[in-house]
Design goal:
The structure holds two protein chains of two kinds. Chain A is α/β, with parallel strands linked by helices. Chain A folds into two domains: 7-228, P-loop containing nucleotide triphosphate hydrolases (Rossmann fold, 3-Layer(aba) Sandwich); 237-300, Alpha-Beta Plaits (2-Layer Sandwich). In chain A, 35% of the residues lie in helices and 28% in strands. Chain A is built from eleven helices and 14 strands. The longest helix of chain A is centred in the middle third of the chain and has 16 residues, at 177-192. The radius of gyration of chain A is 23 Å and the shape is globular. Chain B has one domain. Chain B has helices at residues 2-16, 21-41, 46-80, 82-87, 93-125, 133-157, 162-184, 192-204, 213-216, 224-250. The chains are: A alpha/beta, B mainly alpha.
Chain lengths: 319, 256
């Protein structure tokens, strides 16, 4: 498996002139974030945090006022965009074209080496349309397709040229439960194939299931990055203990000689703890059960939970 | 080159399926029929009436279609977001804009051919025979003007929204139609520098150069050299406008 390219956003600031009343606005401020090669990374933030602008900076649709964006070590240009598959939040497909035409134009524009032959191109388009269950609708105009169908077409468009970097902006939006399940499967396949994925989503379950790293933006700046943590997100475990206050939890730790938790917070008399690995969490679980402590939750830790998000979003989420 | 060709093909297809395509063809056909009726009502100079009335309709319909399509190609693509997905593909901005313009010109040629065939049919029906060379040149210059107006619409669309681009293009087009009559009718008391400015502008931006209706009906004599100069003038204007458009568009951010 070849290594997929990584994306580096270095000290990027984007200032735009909105209008006469608002004047100049800083949308992204001194942002530095790295999307590791072959990893699936989530980009989270409240509405207006600068997620879409960051994506547009990566795609070269927006030029940074200061700083640099690079893909595979090179500044974003035509050749770098060739590696990317992009699925925007809202369907951006001309309504008067048919799914076949959309994919034909798309493949011809990207012109990937594997699909330079007309026959191979035709086969790839048929396969892509069958995969997203649109083969029966291939001659319908996009305007006549349902929102979910158009979304699946957007996926086919983003991936037909087999990109090594996939940028997804709210990929689940507009999909019914079956569509969501299918979309999760398709993204998982890309993740398993070692592609670099950048995913913007407000759905934490989706992020937890599909992403290795999380970056949180607030007012155009990076406020949290799980890549900075000394752990791999997939190895972390959570444990919730009922009937214990902070002092009791500390006493349990000291009494049983347990390792410290990585992250934790108290909700009344329930302690929610996150450990760096399964072994540490299991030791705690065993010690708690031996002492008759009620365990209300034990399992793999979500990549990020709502409490963490609330902490970083602050007032923006409340408003 | 492949990407320019692909954008051109897509742009042509989008415009050919555009809502205003069939109404515009119908309008072109109706105006020709109306010109024919007006010609038959005339006591003499049937051919001149057919060309004078028909040419006006042909000119207006074509220019308006070029303005709408030119605006739609970029401004609406920005408004509906299709611009975003296309520019996220490995296409240079200049290639994209040139491809879009070529697609627009191709769609205008298609529209032009449809109306032209109908026009020739009307001429045959009136026993005017096949189109003469001056008459054909009249239509070629009309197409050149449509293409120029389309380029102007594209230019405004690179930095303005749909409404502003439409308004600005229509104003610029009208300015081209009236510039020379205004320059030629300045009052005697006008200051020297004002006369120079107005006449300079009129020489640069004169859409009457593309009106060959007098030449088509034999009223006006235009030599081959003069025709070439007018043709080169139109093409140069298109090149200048497209170059400026590309410069603007290259630096522009694609925000929502």
């Amino acid at each position: 498996m070849s290594v997929a390219p990584g994306i580096k956003v270095e000290n990027v600031t984007k200032v735009v002139y909105s209008d006469v009343t608002k004047g100049r606005q800083t949308i992204v401020s001194d942002l530095s974030v790295t999307f590791s090669p072959g990893k699936s990374s989530a980009l989270l933030g409240h509405n207006g945090a600068g997620k879409t602008t960051t994506i547009k900076l990566i795609l070269g649709l927006v030029r940074p006022t200061r700083g640099q964006v690079s893909i595979d070590g090179q500044p974003v240009g035509v050749e770098q965009r060739r590696m990317i598959g992009y699925m925007p939040e809202v369907n951006r497909i001309p309504l008067v074209l048919t799914p076949t035409e959309v994919l034909e134009f798309h493949v011809a524009t990207y012109n990937p080496p594997k699909l330079r032959d007309a026959k191979a191109r035709k086969v790839a388009i048929e396969e892509a349309l069958r995969r997203v269950e649109l083969w029966e609708h291939r001659k319908k105009r996009v305007g006549k397709l349902s929102k979910g169908m158009a979304r699946r077409l957007a996926w086919a468009q983003a991936t037909i040229h087999d990109p090594s970097v996939l940028i997804l902006d709210e990929p689940m939006s507009g999909l019914d439960p079956t569509g969501r399940l299918a979309m999760r499967g398709w993204i998982s396949d890309f993740r398993a194939a070692g592609k670099t994925i950048v995913l913007c989503s407000h759905e934490l379950a989706t992020v937890g299931e599909l992403c290795d790293d999380v970056s949180i933006l607030r007012k155009g700046s990076l406020v949290y990055s799980s890549a900075h943590e000394e752990r791999t997100a997939s190895g972390a475990y959570r444990l919730s203990l009922s009937g214990l206050d902070e002092k009791a939890v500390a006493a349990l730790r000291d009494g049983a000689g347990l390792k410290a938790w990585m992250r934790g917070h108290q909700e009344g008399f329930t302690a929610h703890l996150v450990f760096a690995d399964y072994a540490s969490a299991a030791e705690w679980l065993q010690a708690a059960l031996q002492r008759g402590v009620v365990v209300t939750d034990f399992g793999p830790a979500p990549l990020i939970d709502e409490r963490v998000l609330l902490k970083f979003f602050g007032k923006e989420l409340e408003s | 080159m492949i990407s320019v060709f692909m954008v051109m093909r897509e742009s042509f297809l989008l415009l050919r399926r555009d809502k205003i395509f069939l109404p515009a063809v119908a309008a072109g056909v109706m105006i020709t029929i109306f010109a024919n009726i007006a010609s038959e009502w005339g006591i003499e100079e049937f051919r001149k009436i057919l060309f004078d009335v028909g040419a006006l309709g042909f000119h207006l319909t074509g220019c308006l279609v070029a303005i709408f399509w030119g605006t739609k190609t970029v401004s609406e693509a920005r408004a509906d977001g299709s611009l975003e997905i296309q520019l996220a593909a490995p296409i240079g901005r200049v290639s994209w804009l040139v491809g879009k313009y070529l697609g627009l010109v191709l769609a205008l040629i298609f529209f032009w051919l449809l109306v032209l065939v109908f026009w020739q049919g009307i001429m045959f029906a009136n026993d005017f025979g096949g189109m003469t060379q001056p008459q054909f040149m009249f239509f070629v210059f009309q197409l050149l003007e449509w293409s120029l107006v389309g380029a102007v619409a594209l230019f405004y669309s690179t930095f303005a929204g749909v409404t502003i681009a439409l308004f600005a293009t229509i104003s610029t087009w009208m300015a081209g139609l009236v510039s020379m009559p205004v320059a030629q009718n300045l009052p005697y008391g006008a200051k020297g520098w004002a006369v120079d400015v107005v006449q300079g502008l009129a020489r640069f931006w004169d859409f009457r150069q593309f009106n060959l209706s007098g030449f088509a009906t034999g009223v006006e004599k235009i030599g081959p050299g003069e025709l070439q100069v007018r043709g080169v003038y139109g093409i140069l204007l298109i090149l200048i406008i497209m170059t400026v458009s590309c410069i603007f568009f290259r630096r522009r951010d694609v925000l929502a």
